[in-house]
Automatic annotation (TrEMBL):
This is AP2/ERF domain-containing protein. Belongs to the AP2/ERF transcription factor family. AP2 subfamily. InterPro entries: AP2/ERF_dom (IPR001471), AP2/ERF_dom_sf (IPR036955), DNA-bd_dom_sf (IPR016177). Keywords: DNA-binding, Nucleus, Transcription, Transcription regulation. It is found in: Nucleus.
Length: 57
């Protein structure tokens, strides 16, 4: 569902930019795998990755 994918993309960007205390749509535990992957990316790299992964929205 497009709305859920968009909300998850927002959550991931918010977590990368503002950290785990920011308001997100889904529980933080939902993103454990993604959070681990994000640790090794700059903000710019992560946003490029996010755009590639969500280009079909």
């Amino acid at each position: 569902d497009k709305e859920e994918k968009a909300a998850r993309a927002y959550d991931l960007a918010a977590l990368k930019y503002w950290g785990p205390t920011t308001h997100i749509n889904f529980p933080l535990s939902t993103y454990e795998k993604e959070l681990e992957e994000m640790k090794h990316m700059t903000r710019q790299e992560f946003i490029a990755h996010l755009r590639r992964c969500t280009s079909s929205l």
